[in-house]
Amino acid sequence: MSEASTERVTDRPDEVTDPLLWDLAAAVADAHQPDAERVCASPSCAGAAWPCAAWEAAQLGLTAARTPRSAVAPGPRRAGGGEQPGVVPAPVSGMDRLAATAA
Asked: CA angle, 59 as apex, 7 and 18 as ends, to 5°?
């Protein structure tokens, strides 16, 4: 384990309910910091204005990682749970869940 990842574990707040999500989101946020001209310093952003999309997504991840499990939006329900027969619910992506918990 690198020194940077070890530091993140010790900096993790007590209210974090999803440590893996927290660690991944923190790593993305750390990698997408602004430079002196307020441009994202990450090579993957290629000079994008800060805050970049990756940093914003990381903030949603950090928020979701602190959200109690009971408050997280449930995944799609299976047919037979009150839906109309033959109607398959649309899949819910992880980003949709993150956006729902951040709202």
From this structure: 60
Distance, in Å, from the CA atom of 60 to the CA atom of 95, rounded to the nearest integer, reads: 9
- What's the one-letter identity of residue 42? S
Q: What is the pLDDT of residues 58-99, one digit of tens each?
A: 999 999 999 876 655 666 655 555 555 555 555 555 555 555
Q: Is the entire prediction scored with pTM above 0.85?
A: no
Give the pair of three-digit tokens for residue 19.
Answer: 């440590």
CA distances from 29 to 16, 25, 41, 58, 91 (A): 16, 6, 11, 5, 27
The C-alpha atoms of residue 57 and residue 62 are separated, in whole angstroms, by 9
pLDDT of residue 18: 94
Residue with tokens 């000079």: 47
Structure-token match 């893996």, residue found: 20
Cα–Cα distance measured from residue 25 to residue 72, given in angstroms and rounded to the nearest whole number: 17
